[in-house]
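note to self: dont lose this again. the chain is below, predicted strucutre after it. 281 aa total, dont forget to put it in the shared folder this time
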Amino acid sequence: MSVHSCSVNSYTPDEMMTIAAARLIRPGCVCFVGIGVPSAAANLARLTHAADMVLIYESGAIGTHPRVLPLSIGDGELAETATAVVPLPEIFSYWLQAGRIDVGFLGAAQIDRFGNLNSTVIGGYRKPKTRLPGAGGAPEIAHHAKQIFVVLKQSPRTFVAKLDFCTSAGFINGHGERARRAIPGAGPQAVITDLGVLKPATGSQELTLVARYENVSVERIRAATGWPLAVADRMDVVAAPTADELRVLRDLHKRTEIAHASNTRRSKKTPRPAPASHVNP
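---
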């Protein structure tokens, strides 16, 4: 991977992760995306090399071109810049379950060696240490999208030997179990972290380290994984961000910061309506 790159000291691990994820999106791709890093990566791809991609959010926005990153799937920015807005059932039945989604972009709190995801609880389900946002549309996306890209930071707390709860199925126990259960989508085809990129191995479908970032050692990545991490025989080094990729990503984040700060100030200035007075008859 030889592209003109910036100094290795001029970008953050989060920026590298976002840019590496964005590079995986192909022009013309129909992409079902969530909030956070997946949204940033998908919009970076749209603003750089994949201007004709179709961006879909769970709220019903199709072909949206947000000027800033949405705070939630219900952010008005998505509807205002969309080619169309359709009811939620149509998003799932016509687009997702009918196999019209090329890529589903997901995050998670935990992932295991076979790409199964937890976004529900940390700890026991009935008395969890932390109750997370929950499944949302993730299980359906993981089930039906032609392929899944997962984006999350890598540490022993996120890359675990056993999930506290399985929210979305990856390869289940591997070795063809997903196919035996007749799950239509191909499952997680890339896991992009702040340290490198993992892909499922042929046959076992166990996540295997196939690429690392500059100045990140294999030993460091292994130490950040909660199971004995398999490493590909041929290890790629992902090229550092280009100046253009960093400029577009930072401009996007800056616009987002300014827009949301402005909205917060306006909401604080808006007086709350006085409580209705009750008059006894």
